[in-house]
Design brief:
mainly alpha; Arc Repressor Mutant, subunit A; 2 domains; 3-stranded antiparallel sheet; 12 helices
């Protein structure tokens, strides 16, 4: 019995290792989208045994990153506008609904951890440091929602991971990178005063702008259509006003963030739609 338990534990570790390495290879582009590979080739390329590779691929297929074909062939799922649209629409809907209530429970330790993430991101902006930046970036967003419970966190983390295949495009866009830094500081400032509505609006705008920036690199015509639709449906801004003009306790934190965040820009109330959320007439 002892040997069976040990073998089961070892096999579980092998499968977990295979899962992590195969998934990382897909998300980082080592296995390019659309590539056809056999389970044998994957095992050989990563130096893994075939059985845990087969088991890991079943889990990864459920996430939509691969599809199986006959003869133990698998295809790495392609990146596409439809996938990007669905991915960021889900992130907007899930994360903005979650932060409305979760940020009110943030502790001082949570806020310190978020601030450390911002520091790490600031010092690792170069493309060669993307792995370090992205780990801090993921954690920053996870801290804001993790008090909602493990189910929310796990699904949001999966969406965040899948977005990594597209974020490389965004990271290479200098102007967008600078804007992201300001947006992250805005989100952090709103978290420090535990304003869930403000965080939800800012987060929706942040996600929507990143999606539009990525699309602009791939298919500019779609961005022009999206901006046109957004402007046609624009709603007068109300809730997302500058933290610098908030009464009472907001003044102190606005002053603290002033050196890196000159002003929080208002956005549309219609932030559940990622293309209507980011309404800005200046070039992306």
């Amino acid at each position: 019995m002892k040997h069976k338990v040990t073998d089961s534990f070892t096999n579980g570790n092998c499968m977990s290792n295979a899962y992590d390495r195969i998934k990382e290879s897909i998300l980082k582009g080592y296995f390019a989208p659309g590539t056809r590979l056999s389970q044998v080739k994957i095992a050989d390329r990563l130096g893994l045994s075939r059985t845990p590779v087969r088991e890991a691929l079943r889990l990864i297929e459920k996430e939509g990153l691969v599809t199986s074909e006959r003869g133990r062939q698998i295809v790495i799922s392609s990146t596409s506008m439809a996938d990007l649209n669905e991915l960021y629409a889900l992130r907007v809907k899930l994360d903005t609904a979650t932060v409305r209530t979760s940020v009110t429970d943030l502790s001082l330790e949570d806020l310190d951890e978020m601030q450390n993430c911002l520091i790490t991101m600031d010092t690792n902006e170069a493309l060669e440091d993307f792995a370090t930046f992205d780990a801090a970036h993921r954690l920053f967003h996870m801290i804001a929602i993790r008090r909602a419970g493990p189910r929310h966190v796990d699904y949001s983390a999966q969406l965040n991971e899948h977005a990594e295949r597209y974020r490389g495009i965004h990271m290479g866009h200098t102007n967008s990178q600078s804007q992201s830094k300001a947006e992250h500081n805005d989100i952090f400032a709103a978290c420090t005063i535990r304003d869930g509505d403000q965080v939800a609006c800012l987060l929706a705008e942040h996600y929507a702008r990143i999606a539009l920036t990525i699309i602009a690199q791939i298919e500019p015509r779609l961005v022009r259509a999206a901006i046109g639709a957004a402007l046609a449906n624009r709603v007068t801004p109300n809730r997302c006003s500058s933290l610098g003009h908030r009464p009472g306790g907001g003044k102190k934190i606005a002053h603290r963030a002033k050196s890196v965040v000159p002003e929080l820009r208002p956005i549309s109330r219609d932030y559940m739609n990622p293309y209507h959320a980011y309404i800005k007439t200046t070039p992306i």
